[in-house]
UniProtKB/TrEMBL annotation, chain A:
Keywords for this protein: Thiamine pyrophosphate
Protein name per UniProt: Transketolase
Cofactor(s) listed in the protein's UniProt record: thiamine diphosphate
SUPFAM superfamilies: Thiamin diphosphate-binding fold (THDP-binding), TK C-terminal domain-like
Residue span(s) of domain Transketolase-like pyrimidine-binding: 4-170
Residue ranges of coiled coil: none
Keyword Disulfide bond listed: no
From TrEMBL, chain B:
Record carries keyword Metal-binding: yes
An annotated Gene Ontology molecular function: transferase activity
Keywords carried by this UniProt record: Metal-binding, Thiamine pyrophosphate, Transferase
Pfam families noted in UniProt: Transketolase_N (PF00456)
Residue stretches making up the Transketolase N-terminal domain: 5-257
Species name: Breznakia blatticola
Similarity remark: Belongs to the transketolase family.
Annotated signal peptide: none
Protein name as annotated: Transketolase
PANTHER family: TRANSKETOLASE N-TERMINAL SECTION-RELATED
InterPro entries listed in its UniProt record: THDP-binding, Transketolase_CS, Transketolase_N
Gene3D superfamilies the record matches: 3.40.50.970
Amino acid sequence: MAKVATREAYGKTLAKLIVEKDNVIVLDADLTKSTKTIDAKNARADHHFNMGIAEGNMMSVAAGLAASNKVVYASSFAMFAAGRAFEQIRNSICYPNLNVKVCATHAGLTVGEDGASHQSVEDIALMRAIPNMKVFQPCDDIETAAIINAVYDIDGPCYVRLGRSGVERVNYEDYTFELGKGVILNKGEKVAIVATGMMVQEALGAKDLYEGNPTIVNMPTIKPIDTDLLIDLAKTHDVIVTIEEHSIIGGLGGAVVEALAEHNLCPVVCMGVNDTFGESGKPADLLKKYGLDSQAIANKVNTYL
Amino acid sequence: MSLKEHATNVRKNIIDMVYAAQSGHPGGSLSGADIITYLYFDEMNINTDNASSNNRDRFVLSKGHASPLLYGILMEKGIISTDLIPTFRQVDSKLQGHPNMNYVEGVDMSTGSLGQGISCAVGMAIANKVDNSPNRVYAMLGDGECEEGQVWEAAMAAAHYKLDNLCAVVDFNGLQIDGNITDVMNPTPIDEKFAAFGWNVVHIDGHDFDDIRRGFDEARNCKGKPTMILAKTTKGKCVSFMEGDYGWHGVAPNKEQYEAAMECLCGGSK
């Protein structure tokens, strides 16, 4: 099956949602073809507003729409949504607990050739720190569709982190997304790998490289984190390894460590971007250089198997 | 009761709140009192029955630090109680230092971070357009606030989407925390900038009710573009020793000053 980027699935899902739900409004910041909100625009042009290259204004406009009973999907690249418009998301959207779904694409290093200025590796940390905000990262097209539909029913702000690059499908057609729940993809022993986004595929892709049978967990909800599952994993494994296409500071690894710290159960090893900026390159080459491809994951995991 | 008497009561509420809290922003609250009084008593369709509804005209206090002004008018309209005055800026109070829409009936948007409220008002105006609603959206900005780049992003968007259901008032009192706006970071000419962005611009004396009425009438009758009302005002208006002094931007009066302020206002209501 051909690889599909999560942003592609976002556009397709939104195109249905904007027709089915009269109160859905979509905002974009001159990136409709990249974020794929153009699909929603083509489906219902009078409920899609291009706010131009002005992300701060877009987020506050989204808040005003939500204060008028609209459910707003606001999109840009993760760098400019979570980064540039951080304070508008915090003060205009999250403080009043308004119904805005910030759906940010082109997250992480796999933006690729555009380089460090466009590679957001801090957005999970930024969004996770804001009260009222929930944070999600789907791993494939099926999970993306499920999450984009699920956040419509959540009363309050959500951040959905989406990728630029095509990824293989992990889930089956009958997949049902459960808010705040991790998904065990492989039940193994000794090492529990907790991955999010396209790192789920990288962890699964290392299967033949593992010198044993690690547990592999997909964590699509980063906030609220699935503490019950994490405690269970910590009790039944020697070590938990978190993997994300994000800084090791403040992302999934941070959330897992925070959840487990007081329980003193097992060590947690955080794999991610090691407090550094990225650079231009092909996505696969970048994952290799920054230690986030299947081989790097297997090398790390094998030291504990 | 006349508009002038209502405005005096709003100003008394402002001074009472800031004095009780020994904290808050009296200068820029007093400068906007006549404009907000006109809005809530003669322009907007807001009352005690529909205050908690979305289906009415909306007001966004983009200069959110002037929260005593907004709380003061909601008290004068009977939408919230004057019993709340001693709680202003205190723990467990609905009357936060900057307005929270979820705590106070009649507060239409949480504001305080400058530049964001005008964008929120743009969002509300777009929503009214989508819904074919006749309701209008009003926003009050500070002149210093116009130094925020987001104000101009919002101005661009409002003109682009032809939001003639949006009216922004700039409370042009000429002063910000650090001094005269022209000395700190000159945002003028604010009127010509808004006009260049595609807005209808109206000049008024922000303390003359006939002129205020003319401004909002012109805004309502302008089709195809949003209106900015540049309201020339005096910071600290009606409290003689606060008038035109930027030192009263965010400072509370002591007991003697409080009594002197109330004497000014009691004289003003006659």
